[in-house]
From TrEMBL:
Source species: Luteimonas notoginsengisoli
One protein family per Pfam: LEA_2
Entry protein name: LEA type 2 family protein
Ranges where the record places region Disordered: 135-160
Signal sequence range: 1-21
Amino acid sequence: MHRRGLSFLFLAAATALLLGACSNGPVRRVSEPSASIQQLTVRADGSWSVELRLQNYSSIPMRFEAIDLAVTLGDQPAGTLQGNAGISIGPESADVVTLTHTPTSAARIALADALGGNHGIGYALEGTLRAAPEDKGSRSFDIKRTSGLTPVPGLPGVLR
């Protein structure tokens, strides 16, 4: 009888510990976000409309605030993308913000060459994104990204 009582107590204690561990809810993990150019459109006045994809890798929703990213197109500095994102992105999701950008003349020439020759061009983003969990203060995340853009057939002045 004594053995059964001890076994029952051990089983009850183990079950209580296991249930207690499960009741803490999901893990709240804040991870570094990323940014990339989803689409770049040359506007009639020579400025660019830049669709910037913001990726939230965190397990919780994040509020994206300030964007401050130096852009290099080809080998040419193109200026700095700055803006206020003003959006919340759900856990492990992405969204797009559109920023208007006035590029440097060297970057305009490099982009015109890529579009005229119907070939791709590399780009780099380097700077910071300011973001925060929806219930906490924000912080800056360092961003460093390199990728490429190619002209979109049938859409003059558009690269993806």
